[in-house]
């Protein structure tokens, strides 16, 4: 199976490790797991626009994957956590943007996906968090 290797992404990942004592990615053999990624920049600031925040979260997932030697094309499983836009649904915008980003970054490969609405996330102003599992060598 292999020895666990932990990775810290440059910028926000380094800040989060210093502040909260966790890392952004783990690789064991051909499997990569990442910590949930928000739509923050390297200073842990979130954009006002929800669509931009979701795209940034995808960028941060990509950064964590790359640090551990994987890409979006290796992703097999996605969990996304959202502050709902209404009491009974996550909303059209998050669902649409998530699907657009899957198509853009993964091409014709579709992951399994669990999308959850939650009451709160780990940082003020945070509205989305994405966590993935990747298996190397899928292509």
Helicity range of the residues?
Answer: 25-40%
Q: What string, H for helix and E for strand, traces the elements in order?
A: EHEEHEHEE
Distance between the termini: 21 Å
Number of strands: 6
Radius of gyration: 15 Å
The structure class reads: alpha+beta
The fraction of residues in strands falls at: 15-25%
**What is the mean pLDDT?**
95
Q: Multimeric state of these chains?
A: single chain
**Spatial ordering of strands, largest sheet:** 1-2-3-6-4-5
Count of DSSP-assigned helices: 3
The coarse overall form would be globular
Give the biggest beta sheet: 6 strands, mixed
List low-pLDDT spans. none
Describe the structure.
The chain starts with a strand and ends with a strand. It is an alpha+beta fold and 139 residues long. The relative contact order is 0.22. The mean pLDDT is 95. The protein is globular, with a radius of gyration of 15 Å. Helix 2 runs parallel beside helix 3. The protein has three helices and six strands; from the N terminus they run E-H-E-E-H-E-H-E-E. It has a six-stranded mixed beta sheet, with helices on one face.
Main features:
six-stranded mixed beta sheet, 139 residues, 3 helices
Explain briefly what this protein structure is.
The protein is α+β, with helices and mostly antiparallel strands and about 140 residues long. It is about 30% helix and about 25% strand.
Secondary-structure blueprint:
Blueprint: E1 5-7, H1 12-20, E2 25-28, E3 31-34, H2 50-67, E4 75-82, H3 92-106, E5 112-117, E6 128-135
Parallel strand pairs: 4-5
Antiparallel strand pairs: 1-2, 2-3, 3-6, 4-6
């Amino acid at each position: 199976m292999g020895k666990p290797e932990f990775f810290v992404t440059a910028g926000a990942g380094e800040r989060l490790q210093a502040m909260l004592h966790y890392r952004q990615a783990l690789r064991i053999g051909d499997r990569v797991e990442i910590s949930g990624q928000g739509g923050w920049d390297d200073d842990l600031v979130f954009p006002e626009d929800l669509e931009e925040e979701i795209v940034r979260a995808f960028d941060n997932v990509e950064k964590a994957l790359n640090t551990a030697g994987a890409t979006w094309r290796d992703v097999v499983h996605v969990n996304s956590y959202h502050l709902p836009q209404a009491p009974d649904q996550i909303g059209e915008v998050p669902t649409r943007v998530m699907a657009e980003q899957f198509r853009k970054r993964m091409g014709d490969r579709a992951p399994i996906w669990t999308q959850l609405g939650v009451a709160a996330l780990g940082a003020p102003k945070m509205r989305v968090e994405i966590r993935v599992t990747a298996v190397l060598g899928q292509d």
